[in-house]
Design a protein that fits this description.
Length: about 280
């Protein structure tokens, strides 16, 4: 495997920072009296507090050797970085025995670039399938010449976060954060749901009953009128019978059935969308 451009752009380059002249990496930045900006002071000789560095974290452990007073161009710094990364990719590839995601691999190469001594320990845990232990082990490598460095604490934290980023952006959106870490199943369509199908069928039947009821009412109107003419003084019963056989009653029943079907349909659709059940 090789480190991705995303890994270079989001991990190594931002954390190393591009400095085109030689500097001591344990000397704090100072304000430039001319520009007013904080800059890494150029190392011009004398005892080193940390490691002599230039470009994107390049040190004398790799070629080319740093020459005091030199200035690199941005293109030269990028070329040297890619050459350096090839060495650390080879180290990670030599130790890594299992398949990992690109983000995990990039995080390991960045760790190797910054602290090669961490790789046998951390990658050994990755090979054993214990990624959580590997992440805890990474947080042990936060010292420079025996001194705890807050910058290294933040860098290890950033590497771990990057390693836990899915390679596929859609994978992150479709994954629920739950104790079981289960992936959300794709929601069923209303046609696939038994309840949804029943609701659709009921709605169709309800709509059909309204139409059929109106037609039936027209057919029944003549005999009802004839029966009414033959029966006298039936009072309330006459009104009930008349209403029960009227077009209004059939329409009301049909509308009730249709409303019930719509309610069942919407309720089922909500449960499928929100709860996938």
């Amino acid at each position: 495997m090789k480190m991705s451009q995303e890994g270079l752009d989001k991990l190594t380059k931002p954390w190393e920072e591009l400095i085109l002249w030689p500097y001591d990496d344990k000397v704090a930045k100072r304000r430039n009296s001319e520009t007013g900006r904080f800059e890494q002071p150029e190392y011009k000789g004398g005892p080193l507090r940390g490691t002599l560095t230039q470009g994107y974290g390049h040190t004398n452990s790799d070629d080319p050797k740093i020459v005091l007073g030199s200035r690199w161009t941005v293109a030269e710094a990028n070329e040297i970085l890619l050459k350096d990364m090839g060495r650390y990719e080879a180290i990670v590839n030599r130790y890594l025995k299992v398949k990992v995601s690109q983000h995990v691999y990039d995080g390991l190469v960045d760790l190797c670039f910054n602290c090669p001594s961490a790789i046998p320990h951390v990658v050994g845990l990755i090979n054993a399938g214990n990624k959580a232990a590997a992440e805890r082990a990474m947080m042990q490598y936060i010292y420079s010449k025996g001194e705890r460095m807050e910058g290294l604490v933040h860098r290890r934290t950033a590497e771990i976060a990057f390693m836990n980023t899915p390679d596929d952006p859609e994978e992150a959106a479709s994954t629920i954060i739950s104790p079981k870490a289960e992936r959300e199943p794709a929601p069923k369509t209303m046609a696939q749901s038994k309840t949804g199908s029943a609701a659709i069928a009921t709605a169709s039947a309800g709509a059909g009953s309204v139409i059929a009821g109106i037609q039936a009412a027209n057919d029944a109107a003549a005999p009802i009128k004839e029966a009414r003419d033959n029966i006298n003084d039936l009072g309330l019963m006459e009104h009930l019978i008349r209403f029960a056989h009227s077009p209004k009653a059939l329409i009301i029943v049909g509308c009730f059935v249709l409303a019930l079907a719509v309610f069942v349909f919407l309720d089922r659709k909500y449960k499928l969308t929100e709860f996938h059940v």
